[in-house]
Amino acid sequence: MQLTLLNRLRSAQWPLLFAALALAGCGGGNPPSPPLAAHAVSQPAGWDDELKMPVPQDLNPDPHVLEVELEARVADVELLPGTKTPAWTYNGTVPGPMLRATVGDRVIVRALPEPLRLIEPTGSTPFYDLLRTKASLLPY
C-alpha cells in the first residue's frame, strides 16, 4: 500500500515540475514592446503590383476637376491562371480603372464608344458631368 502511494506522489511530481519550468520562463526580462501603428509599418517594394487598379490619365489641368475617358470594349481577360476569357471591360481591364475624387470636385467621364450611352449626348461622345457633394463609393 505504501508503494502505491509513493507511485502516486511520483506521478504527481511531473505536472508540478512542468508547471514550475513554464512559470520560470514567464518571469523577468523586458516587457514586450507595444504593437506598431499601421502607418509605421511598411510593405516590401512592389508587394501590390498585381493588385493595383489602373488609374486613368486626368485630362483636365484643374486640380478640382477629374476628367477621364472610359472605353467600353470586349477584351480577353485572365480570370483563371492560363485561361483567357472575352469580357466587357472598361479600358481593357476588369474591374475598370480607379476614379478617385475629393468631395467638392467635379467629375467628367467621357464614355466611348456608343454602347455605353446612358444619356442622349449633345455631341458625338456621350459624357457624364457630376459634382461630388458627399463622400461615396460608386461602382460603374
Report on this structure.
The N and C termini lie far apart (about 85 Å). This protein has about 140 residues and is α+β, with helices and mostly antiparallel strands. A hairpin with a 2-residue loop joins strand 1 and strand 2 (about 85-90). Helix content is about 20%, strand content about 25%. The protein has a domain at about 65-130: Immunoglobulin-like, CATH 2.60.40. A 4-stranded mixed beta sheet has the order 2-1-3-4, with no helix packed on it. The relative contact order is 0.13. The protein has 1 helix and 4 strands.
Main traits of this protein?
alpha+beta, single chain, 140 residues, Immunoglobulin-like
Note the total helix count.
1
CATH topology of one domain: Immunoglobulin-like
The first-level CATH class name of one domain:
Mainly Beta
Number of distinct beta strands = 4
